[in-house]
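Example 3.2
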Amino acid sequence: MKLAGATLAVIVLALIFTACAKESAFQKEINQIRLEKDSYMKDSKSSPFNAKTKVEFHPLNYFAVDSNFVFKSKLVEYPEKDTLTIYGTKGEPRQVVRYGYVTITYNGIKHNINVYEGSYSGGKYYSIWFTDRTTNEESYGVGRYLDFELKSDPGFVYTIDFNLAYNPYCAYSQDYSCAIPTKDDYIDIAITAGEKKFHD
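Structure, written as tokens:
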């Protein structure tokens, strides 16, 4: 019995060590992405800190990396893809298509999150934009974005990682206008992951 107990303890410790190692690798990956973004924002002529009006740079603010805000979901396309008029922060109308939605489950509650299709001179892009309980408190008051890379496989399982949620350029400089999430894009949880406010 003592041997069995010791063996069980070793197995438990091994599982804990493996979980910690995975978490550390995940944290390292996200933190590296953040360092690279800081470097781009500080030095690139195309960044919102340098492209138009010069804005004083300091490292971007983030919530701690949290694997609890990583989800898996298939994309459900809307049978009728409505074209919506949304507005930018300077009041200009924009046409987007409500393409589909992904589903996350947090604390046992499911939340459907819209995926939008937009157009630019080079083609189409897909994006999630959202507000949540941290909006205008810890995170940017307009909302935050997640890039979405559409796959041709309808059975593809997407990773929705809110650690990668970021502020649009209007969060840093008044020279920019950004799409305002609608009331249907509110997620009724505190998403304490991803980017925080840049300005206090």
